[in-house]
Design brief:
Largest sheet of chain A: 8 strands, mixed
Number of helices of chain A: 27
Largest sheet of chain B: 5 strands, parallel
Distance between the termini of chain A: 52 Å
CATH superfamily of the largest domain in chain A: von Willebrand factor, type A domain
Strand content of chain A: 5-15%
Number of strands of chain B: 9
Shape of chain B: elongated
Largest interface: A-B, 37 and 51 residues
Helix content of chain B: 40-55%
Radius of gyration of chain B: 21 Å
Number of helices of chain B: 12
CATH class of the largest domain in chain B: Alpha Beta
Oligomer: heterodimer
CATH architecture of the largest domain in chain A: 3-Layer(aba) Sandwich
Structural class of chain B: alpha/beta
Structural class of chain A: alpha/beta
Helix content of chain A: 40-55%
Chain lengths: 725, 277
């Protein structure tokens, strides 16, 4: 046993690496790598070789570069962090190509300088779920979290690095991320960006220096704001500063300013009424001095902020005016009778002043934010308008009067204000875009990790076919439809009267008479004397995922459509909630889901026409379709959720890695994910080779093969019955 | 015989005659008291809607005290049958005996019947209140062959939370259109502050932090939380704090864990708590 755990020999490592990096063809040097790996213990060697192999499936050069740097990084970072680093490089390769990915690997030197020795770093993926909710709880504009090279914000998105390892303990690194997020939130919340960066710094010869001074002063102001708003966090921030400050002795605790001028500035900036204008005024006083740089201070990126804000301010102005016009219509303008819904809304008494019949924004009585007033009557704006008002206030300080004029009909082209209105279906007709599309990760089994946002999926309305089609199918299968209906009617778990219950709504006379007789008789009297109406509801939601790949062309497609018609018949009888979606696509950038019947759609002529319209399209990239449809299925409240796939073959895509084991593994992973959320997946296939891969993907009992396509319509309903009873 | 006055024993009341003695603490948010009184005087049934823990039940207690009527509360659930409300025959010593359900008892005694969370009850159960809820104000008891005519002092009130956006838990039009509706929401900040301070005896500074925390969790509604922290949860947290529990664990127990079971969400709320206290 022990012998097998001894470190690899130099010969073995050399051979292994030469093999790995195909040195005969690539001429990569591996001798140096062997020297680095040799002194390590077996476990660590395995760890490195394992990751080198995993990265190899992404790119040979990234893997090689990784192996060069990893030995040095081992001393300073935990393995968990190293894994995150490798995965990040692979992600960057997916997103941006080889050069940026190599940079990530090479920049570990710079990263290590920043990182605390033996740091227990935290990765972005670890902090993101908690902190994005955290920042959502703080008031103000909805802010997103994203990965970036630096810590900064463009006033809508907060960027955090992939790995934070500036402090020793993981807990503290997490707190640091939290403090950075809260700090950037404070920047948007307390108006740090209500500055025209181009104009305000024009007067200074050294713009960068002035900007740095501005940022340092504003940091002081925001610290005071945070101390007031989030005192608990502020205590943590001070502690972090202490931890970090211990390292850089010459700077001292960074909040103790270096020059007496800072004390004066602090006095001004710590008053609750201090604004960003006070910060601007103070710049000359500290220009050229050394600045305190607390560890939680993010970078300031004026270019990103300006670009983001300009676009937003214009868009929001238009959007707000359009929304006001809508609101005015809703309110009926002159007959402002409160509807029943709003009748008892704790409306605030209107103020004295008489307003012209137009919108007005007034400060609320509590002094917290503004309320919208139409013709002197406060109105309760819907949630999206409230959000919009908050966002506008953060940018402007108040709601400028020109914003309060409702837009006239057709004043604006809807394309100007609607962010997502670009039609996802038109993407292939003009310039490619990913707006309105859904991004999903894909499981790379060789990498043992997800490829982030790898698939671009669009939901497309199925084009309607011949509405008479369904009737024709009915005619064809007349006898069968009747039979199916009868079978399924019997299945409908209807109310049953349960006799001889210990509890119930009514006395069960038979049981009572018997019990009385028993008691006269001297035997024990039963206590089961009641009858109880058992009401059972089928609480089931089922999603059908229909393969629309090119290979279904012809009779398979016909059989699929007929099977769906039969299914709809029986499901309508049963009253189960169901939805039908088709899937197809070509390549990872063009995954398509076709809406045939949503859960809310009725089984009417439109739906019937869409079923008739199902036709063969392209390929079968299954994983992404499963991920998307599971999400939809999970939005439905039901005790049991079923995802049934009608398929004719293996997952595949156009000249793609998806045709290999990769596709099967990704589909398997997507089904795992679905199962974790409580969905029961099932597959009905007509592929005779289904048994080769379906048990691996769906599990042994969760698939069925139908040997004769013509039987599909007959069988599917039957399978459904078996599945749900 | 056990002494009824023993402090550790529950006091026994008959719900159809028990009248609340001490004035329940209730601060009106709007004109709900006048509205309720007017509806009561006009024999109209009342529907209270609003999120959980915003004071609907406390309001009912207050009104029962104010009107000096006994109140019978039924917490509805999905197994509640018509018999559970109206009454049923039971077997006692070889004979069947009729036992009134809570609704029948309230009608007989001319009290207030309060059906809490009515949407939780089955739809077929809800219809038994229909004849009581319109101008007939009668209650047929089929099994007894009786028709009860409600006395003038009888009042029917139901409550529901429109926040549950489930198609299964919607009030039928035929039910909702029989009622005078009063909408409740969390009280405005100043009022909520007053309520929390009164109920918990906390100082103003801690109360303000609790209110801020409530606001933060309400911001999370629709972003992973079904509901934000209710006034009731704030009172719970406040009571723990005033009993000497540290604010962080108090809020974690009374607010974060009470709101959700989702791990990330609990951590995020804990971070918010940590940021404030």
């Amino acid at each position: 046993m022990k012998a097998s755990r001894s470190p690899y020999t130099a010969e073995f490592l050399l051979e292994k690496l030469e093999d790995l990096y195909e040195v005969e063809f690539t001429f990569l040097k591996v001798e140096g790598l062997v020297d680095g790996l040799l002194p390590l213990d077996r476990d660590t060697q395995d760890f490195i070789l394992g990751w080198a192999t995993r990265l190899l499936s992404t790119n040979l050069y990234i893997s090689h570069e990784f192996t060069i740097r990893v030995v040095e990084a081992l001393d300073r970072l935990e393995r968990r962090v190293i894994e995150a680093w490798a995965v990040h490089a692979a992600d960057v390769f997916d997103r941006a190509g080889l050069r940026p990915a190599l940079e990530v690997i090479q920049k570990v030197d710079a990263f290590l300088v920043n990182a605390h020795a033996h740091a227990e770093g935290v990765t972005f993926d670890e902090v993101e779920p908690v902190l994005s909710t955290f920042v959502c709880g703080l008031s103000g504009r909805r802010l997103k979290l994203a990965q970036g090279e630096q810590v900064y914000t463009d006033s809508e998105t907060l960027f955090l690095p992939n790995i934070s390892a500036r402090l020793e303990k993981a807990k503290d690194n997490f707190l640091l991320c939290k403090a950075q997020v809260a700090f950037m939130w404070a920047q948007t919340r307390f108006g740090s960006f209500r500055v025209d960066f181009d104009v305000a710094f024009a007067q200074y010869p050294d713009r960068e220096q002035a900007l740095a001074a501005f940022h340092a002063l504003d940091t002081v102001r925001l610290e005071a704001c945070l101390e007031r708003e989030l005192p608990g966090l502020w205590r943590d921030m001070l502690r972090l500063e202490g931890l970090h400050g211990g390292e850089c002795v010459e700077e001292g605790v960074c909040n103790t300013p270096l020059h007496s001028a800072w004390a004066t500035c602090r006095g001004v900036l710590h008053t609750p009424s201090a604004t960003v204008n006070d910060v601007l005024d103070l710049i000359p006083q500290v220009l050229g001095m050394e600045f305190p740089q607390p560890v939680y201070q993010p970078h300031l990126n004026p270019a990103a902020i300006t670009a983001c804000m300009l676009a937003r301010m214009e868009r929001e102005k238009i959007l707000f005016r359009v929304k006001l016009a809508e609101l005015m219509k809703e309110q009926g303008f002159d007959s402002a009778q409160p509807t029943e819904e709003e009748g008892f809304d704790s409306a605030q008494p209107a103020k004295e002043e008489v307003a012209p019949p137009e919108f007005e924004a007034r400060e609320t009585q509590e002094g917290q934010g503004f309320e919208l007033v139409l013709d002197d009557k406060p109105i309760a704006p819907p949630e999206d308008v409230k959000q919009l008002m908050t966002s506008i206030m953060l940018d402007w300080g108040d709601i400028p009067p020109e914003f309060l004029v409702p837009a006239g009909d057709g004043e604006y082209d809807p394309a100007l204000y609607s962010k997502e209105e670009r039609d996802a279906e038109d993407v292939w007709k003009g310039i490619y875009h990913e707006e309105g599309a859904f991004l999903y990760g894909e499981w790379d089994y060789a990498r043992q990790h997800y490829r982030k946002n790898w698939c671009v999926l669009r939901e497309i309305e199925m084009t309607a076919g011949d509405p008479a089609y369904v009737d024709k199918v009915h005619e064809k299968y007349q006898g069968l439809v009747k039979h199916l209906r009868r079978t399924f009617e019997a299945m409908r778990d209807e109310n049953r009267l349960l006799k001889r219950q210990a509890q119930g709504d009514d006395v069960d006379i038979d049981a009572l008479v018997e019990a009385l007789a028993d008691s006269r008789d001297g035997s024990e009297m039963s206590d089961k004397l009641f009858q109880h109406m058992h009401r059972a509801e089928r609480n089931l939601a089922v999603m059908f995922m229909v393969d629309m790949s090119g290979s279904t062309k012809g009779w398979i497609n016909d059989a699929e459509r007929e099977a769906l018609v039969m299914l709809c018949e029986v499901l309508e009888t049963l009253g189960d909630r169901y939805a039908i979606y088709g899937f197809s696509g070509i390549g990872r950038k063009r995954c398509e889901i076709y809406r045939i019947k949503r859960f809310d759609d009725r089984y009417n002529t439109d739906t019937k026409a869409r079923i008739a319209g199902i036709m063969p399209k392209d390929y079968t990239r299954m994983g992404v379709a499963i991920r998307h449809l599971s999400q939809k299925l999970n939005a439905v409240e039901a005790k049991t959720r079923l995802l049934i796939t009608l398929s004719d073959g293996k997952p595949e895509d156009y000249f793609d890695i998806y045709n290999t084991q990769y596709g099967i593994e990704d589909t398997r992973q997507a089904l795992f994910e679905a199962r974790r959320t409580g969905i029961h997946p099932f597959c009905i296939t007509i592929d005779k080779r289904g048994k080769d891969y379906l048990p691996h993907m769906y599990g042994h009992a969760n698939w069925v093969e139908i040997d004769d396509v013509k039987k599909l319509p007959l069988k599917v309903a039957d399978i459904y019955r078996r599945l749900t009873t | 015989m056990a002494s009824a006055t023993d402090q550790n024993n529950a006091r026994i009341h008959d719900p159809s005659s028990y009248i609340i003695e001490n004035q329940p603490y209730y601060v009106p948010v709007g004109d709900e008291i006048t509205l309720f009184e007017a509806a009561y005087a006009s024999y109209l049934p009342v529907l209270l809607k609003g999120p959980t823990g915003c004071g609907k039940t406390r309001f009912m207690e207050y009104m029962a005290w104010k009107l000096q009527r006994p109140m019978i509360t039924v917490s509805c659930h999905d197994d509640l049958t018509t018999s559970d409300l109206v009454g049923r025959y039971l077997v006692k010593g070889g004979e069947t005996v009729w036992v009134d359900g809570p609704l029948t008892r309230a009608v007989r005694s001319g009290g207030i019947c309060y059906l809490d969370e009515i949407v939780e009850a089955r739809k077929d159960t809800m219809v038994v209140i229909h004849p009581l809820a319109d101008d007939r104000r009668i209650m047929p008891i089929e099994k007894l062959g009786q028709l009860l005519e409600a006395p003038e002092s009888f009042c029917l009130a139901i409550s529901y939370n429109p926040g549950y956006q489930s198609v299964l838990k919607e009030l039928k039009q035929s039910t909702r259109q029989r009622f005078v509706a009063i909408e409740f929401d969390y009280p405005k900040a100043e009022l909520e502050r007053q309520i929390v301070m009164h109920e918990t005896g906390l100082d103003a500074a801690t109360t303000d932090k609790l209110l801020k925390l409530a606001e933060m969790t309400r911001n999370l509604k629709g972003n992973g939380l079904e509901e934000g922290a209710s006034t009731r949860l704030l009172v719970h947290a406040g009571k723990l704090i005033s009993k000497g529990v540290e604010p962080r664990p108090a809020c974690q127990g009374a607010i974060a864990l009470a709101l959700t079971d989702d791990g990330d969400m609990i951590s995020a709320i804990n971070e918010l708590i940590g940021a404030l206290f």
